[in-house]
Amino acid sequence: MRINSATFLISAPDLSLCPESDLPEFAFIGRSNVGKSSMINMLTGRKDLAKVSATPGFTKLINFFTINNEWTLVDLPGYGYAKVAQRHRTEFNKAVAEYLERRTNLRCTFVLIDSRLPPQRMDLEFLGWLSGCGISFALIFTKADKISAKALRDSVAAFLAGLTEVSGVVPQTFTSSSKLRQGRPEILGFIAESLARSAD
Q1: How far is CA 38 from CA 14, 19, 86, 135, 149, in A?
Q2: Contact 38, 89 (CB under 8 A)
Q3: How far from the centroid of its chain's Cα atoms is residue 70's Cα?
Q4: Can you give the pLDDT at residue 92?
Q5: Which of 79, 93, 110, 173 is deepest in the core (most CB within 10 A)?
Q6: Which residues on adjacent β-strands are paired with residue 138?
């Protein structure tokens, strides 16, 4: 897939204010500091489409970007904020849950996992919830350039082993590096295939 245009559409605090649209949507979510904004910029070929911040949990709204006038990339607030009051954290989680459960044109949710870390309980619990809700998801292991190829393989294998304990789903997996643009063709190819299936 070639990205010819990527434009910001709107930010919404909850599902009720999300834009009405018939375009297929692909959402991106992950723990704080997993590299989500860098991933979105890398995929779209835009340096500052999504704002990159040194502060974990910077994304606090549901952000919509129209890609090629054919589909919508949705940047969801992450889970596991380091510096957000508990009251606000609950509101963010509710908004994300409602979007994921009730957005009818959502095709797939890409869950970003930091490849440098051992399986994190928060990630596994979130994926268990997605699976229980019947929400389609794929995994993107980020920051692959920060570790060796063997360590990356071992990290992915360990995470998938942990995932089998909370979910019977075997998801599509990708490894990526925003710095090296690794994983971009595979992820965009996956989206292109999904769009082709929905058009049939």
Answers
A1: 23, 24, 26, 24, 21
A2: no
A3: 19
A4: 55
A5: 110
A6: 110, 172
Query: What confidence tier does 191 reach under pLDDT thresholds 50, 70, 90?
Result: very high
Overall average pLDDT of the 171-194 stretch: 96
Spell out the domains of the chain, with CATH numbers in brackets. 6-199 (3.40.50.300)
pLDDT grade for 86, boundaries at 50, 70 and 90: low
Q: Helix, strand, or coil here: 190?
A: helix
- pLDDT confidence bin for 60, thresholds 50/70/90: confident
- SS3 for 89-150 is HHHHHHHHHHHHHHCCCEEEEEEEEECCCCCCHHHHHHHHHHHHHCCCEEEEEECHHHCCHH
Say how far apart CA 11 and CA 61 lie, in whole Å: 6
Task: Give the pairing of strands 25-30 and 71-75.
Answer: parallel
pTM for this entry: 0.90
Phi and psi, residue 104, nearest 5°: -70, -25
- Give yes or no for residue 115 having a pLDDT over 70: yes
Of 93, 116, 105, the closest CA to residue 13 belongs to 93
Q: Which two tokens stand for residue 145?
A: 């350039």
Task: Write the CB contacts of 125 (distance below 8 Å, at least 6 apart in sequence).
Answer: 166
Residue with tokens 């979007």: 99
